[in-house]
C-alpha cells in the first residue's frame, strides 16, 4: 500500500467538523490502497472536547505525536474564557473590552500565521526522520491552523516528495481574519505565506468551489474540491412532538438571524397554537447578543439551550427535529463557507431552513438537493410563509424532506475522490 503522512492539529478528543473530516478519511483510505500515518500534537489546547470521538479512531492506525508549546497557557492567566473563544476563532464583535482588543492584536501580529507556529520547526525535524525511515513519498497538511502548512513547506524543501494541502477554510479571506487588528506588515506577511504555500504544494484540496475559484487566481497548481460529508446513519422514526427548529454549532453575533426571530415573533402573535408548539433548540456556544435578540422578540420561553453536545447526541437531535436551521454571516467572504453540519442535515432528512448571503454556496446546495429553502436577511415575509406551511404539514404529521443526490457526500465516496486525487499524476 502507498504510505501517506497526514499532518494535522485537530484530532480526537478534539470536537468539531474539522476533526471528523480526517477521522473519516483515514477510516476509508485503506479501502483504496492507501495506508495513512497520522501526525498530531501530543499536548494540544483544544477549545472543544468530544471524548466519544476517540472510540472512532481506527484500530491499528499509526499515530505519531510530538509535544507542542502554545501561548494559550500564559494567556489563560489573563482570561481563560476569552482565550478559549479567541483560540477557536470566536471573536466578540459588540463592545470588545480593552483586554480582548489587546489579545487580538497580539494574536494577529505576533503569531503569524497563528498561535501554533512554534510547532513548525520541531515537527520538520522529527518528521524528516520518519520520512526517511518509512520511505514516505506523499504528505498531506490540513489547516487551519495554517501553520500546519508551513510544516509541509519545510518538508517539501528538504525532500523530493508530493505535498498536498487541504484547506478546510480559506486563509486570508476567512471572515475573522479582518478582526485580528493586523498591521499592514502583518497582513502582507499572511498574504506572502499564503501565496508561497499555494505555489509550493503539488496539489491543493478545498472544501468549496468558491475557495477553489479564489485560489485559482493565486496559483496554477491543480485544485480539487472535496466537501465535508456524512456517515450512513439511519434517520430515526420518532420525531419531536413540538415544532422544533434546531440549530447545531456556534451561534454568535455575525450569524444572528434577526429576520427569523422577527418572523417567529409575528407568527406567535398571529397564531396561538404556533406559539404553544414552537421550540427553538440551540446546541453549541450561543452569543449573548443572540440571546438578547431572542428576548427582544419575546421568544425566550420557546428557547431550549442544549449547550455543547457530543457528536452522537448531535446526530440524535438532528434526526428528531422538525426543522434544521443553517446560518451564515451575511458577507462576501462567507459565500464559500459550507458548514460541515450541512451534510449531516441532508442525511437526517429533515427540512433545512437556510439563511445567509446572496449566492451562498451552502444555501444553493440545500435548494439543489431538494432539502429545504434558502433565504436572505431581508426576506421576512417569505420566511413566515414557509414556516406556516411547514407548521401546517407538521400538524398533519406530513412534514417530510425528500432530498435528492446526497450519496455523493457519503464519507466513503469523498475518500474515493481523495484517493484518486492523491494517485493522479499531473502531465
Write the SSE topology.
Layout: E1 2-7, H1 17-28, E2 34-41, E3 62-66, H2 72-78, H3 80-87, H4 98-110, H5 120-134, E4 138-143, H6 147-158, E5 162-167, H7 184-200, E6 203-206, H8 209-216, E7 223-225, E8 243-248, H9 258-270, H10 272-277, E9 278-283, H11 288-296, E10 303-305, H12 311-320, E11 323-327, H13 341-348, E12 352-355, H14 361-368, E13 372-375, H15 380-395, H16 411-423
Parallel strand pairs: 1-2, 1-4, 2-3, 4-5, 5-6, 6-7, 8-9, 8-11, 9-10, 11-12, 12-13
Helix pairs in contact: 1-16, 2-3, 5-6, 9-15
So what's the CATH class of the largest domain? Answer: Alpha Beta
Number of strands: 13
Shape: globular
Q: What's the number of structural domains? A: 2
Helicity, in percent?
40-55%
CATH topology of the largest domain: Rossmann fold
Distinct helical segment count: 16
| Largest beta-sheet details | 7 strands, parallel
Give the strand order, joined by hyphens, for the main sheet.
3-2-1-4-5-6-7
Taking all residues together, what is the mean pLDDT? 90
**Relative strand content:** 15-25%
List SSEs in N-to-C order.
Answer: EHEEHHHHEHEHEHEEHHEHEHEHEHEHH
